[in-house]
Amino acid sequence: MKKIGITTTVPQEVLIAAGYKVIDLNNIFVTSNSYMEYIDIAEKDGFPKSMCAWIKGLYGVCVKEGIEEVVGVIEGDCSNTRALVEVLRLKGIMVYPFAYPNSHRLEDVKKSLDDFMYIFNVKKSDVEDVRSRLNKVRELLIEVDNLTVEGYATGFENHLYLVSSSDFNGDYIEFEAMLRQKIKEIKERERREYDVKLAYIGVPPMMGDIYDYMESIGAKIVYNEVQREFSFPRFKENKDIYDQYYDYTYPYDIEFRLKEIKKQIKERKIDGVIHYTQAFCYRGIEDIIVKSKLDVPVINIEGDKLNELDARTKLRLEAFVDMLKDRKGWRR
């Protein structure tokens, strides 16, 4: 089966219908024991140090792992991706563009998807067949998400399985079997309560240890915004592939994202929000809007190249949790 890399979540239903094995380059990069090697490859080839580590990591993965075909999201994601795909083309990699239109009009989303289907020579009926099959896996991801809120699954498990739904680890059948087994294991645990419930919003973190660390200081992340969006949790409300990618919040403006974030904060009884941004990313500016629009305390943390929390960030997070505990006590 042909492999194709993706720079972020794209309509993988189209790619699977076209006979591809989909590989999220981000997941290869961030889970590698030698992730810095990917960054080094990019910097040796001329990528500036003052550029997002994710972009450099994606490039390094393509070069080192011999990725020959890539879908690059040129609208609705990282503003540096357009330049990245140009460099990938220079390296002889076949790049297919996809865009989440800034207009966020259904007719524009439909055109973008139709163009994508045309590129890969697949019919909408074939894409809908794949979507129906993937939705069975997404049903399990909703269950994992619910088990997190109920106190059985950990915050890291929530992050890991939801973020993996961007490509279903390259094989949705194996991923489904693994999820069924994991859910069975999770349900057999004793329920654990935490003093503070947190939301994590923004791009998935470079530092995966943030989840265990928060639980070690009496707080649990029970809502992962973007990771959850990767799983398309409202698929039952979406009548077709067009509706699904129109409803997907991450690529569109912050006001659209905040509607779902506010809903989840209320439903999950969230005490505070961790807003993660990546160094040198324009999304850091959105923190101004996030803090002005949300009714719960927000802390902004920034990641760069490190794949674990540094001492300063741990101290800030601990102080934030202490403040939330005091706030809850004062309310009582």
Automatic annotation (TrEMBL):
Transmembrane segments: none annotated. Keywords: Iron, Iron-sulfur, Metal-binding. GO terms for molecular function: hydro-lyase activity; iron-sulfur cluster binding. InterPro entries: FldB/FldC_alpha/beta (IPR010327). It comes from the Bacteria. Its cofactor is [4Fe-4S] cluster. Belongs to the FldB/FldC dehydratase alpha/beta subunit family. This is Possible subunit of benzoyl-CoA reductase/2-hydroxyglutaryl-CoA dehydratase. It comes from Thermobrachium celere DSM 8682.
